[in-house]
Amino acid sequence: MASQSSITFSEATEIARDIKTIAYNLWWTWNVDARDLFRELSPQTYFRCNHNVIAMFEEISDQELAARLLDPIQMDRAKNVINQYRDYMAEKNTWANKHAKEIMKNGPVAYFSAEFGLHESLPIYSGGLGILAGDHTKSASDLGLPYIGVSLYYRQGYFEQRIGPDGWQQEEFPNTDPKKLPLELVTDESGEPIVASVTIGHSKVTFHAWRINLGRVSLILLDTNREENELHYREMISQVYGGDITTRISQEIVLGIGGVRMLRAMGISPSVFHMNEGHSAFLTLELYRELVAEQKKKEKEAIEWIRQRCVFTTHTPVPAGHDRFSEDLMRFTLQKFCTHCWQDVSEIMHFGRVDPENKEEPFCMTVLAIKLSRSTNGVSELHSKVSSEMWKDLFPKKSGNKHPIGYITNGVHVPGWTSSRAYRFWQNKLGLDWPNNLDNPAFWQRIEDPEFISDEELWALRYILRRELIEFVRTRLRQQSARYGNNPGGTFDKVLSTDALTIGFARRFATYKRATLFFSNPDRARKILLDPHRPVQIIFAGKSHPRDDQGKRFIQQLVTFAREPELFNKVVFLENYDINAGRLLVSGSDVWLNNPRRPLEASGTSGQKTAIHGGLNASILDGWWREGYDGKNGWAIGEDDHPDSLEEQDRLDAENLYDVIENQVIPEFYSREGNGVPRNWLNRVRHAMATLIPQYNTDRMVEEYVRKYYLNNKK
Ligand SMILES: *Cc1c(COP(=O)(O)O)cnc(C)c1O
Question: Topology of domain 417-696, per CATH?
Answer without folding.
Answer: Rossmann fold (3.40.50)
